[in-house]
DUF1761 domain-containing protein
Amino acid sequence: MPNIQINYLAVIFAAVAYMIIGIIWYGPLFGKQWKALVGLSDDDMKKMKMTPLQSMAGGLVAALVMAFVLAHDAFVWSDFFGGGVGRGIFALQLAFWIWLGYVATTQAGSVLWEGRPWKLFFLNASNTLVSLMVMSLIITYLA
């Protein structure tokens, strides 16, 4: 078992980047489309059980876990795949394969089993792909 070295500052930066991307993605960029696809009005959003601050705090905890696991994967996989390519290419490949193997396949279940529209899948999945790529770049360059 390798002695895994994680830069916790990089994990924090990556988690914050994930949150910023999500705020922009589901706010000014695609907020109206997302609300329409999930069937929420502005009034529905105001009636949510959690306050926006509580939702953001929960999202930050989830982002920290994701960034920590991504940092772990980057360290372990760098021995196998990182040697032949530059850091940037390695980071993007790592993010893509994690996204394709775990995220996209899991999120596809919302279409297959819950009857959600494919547009919503692509909106959510592309947000996660972009987020993972940025997080992976931060983690690999600050490692």
Residues 96 and 129 are 7 Å apart (CA to CA). The helical segments are 8-29, 31-38, 42-46, 52-82, 87-107, 109-112, 118-142.
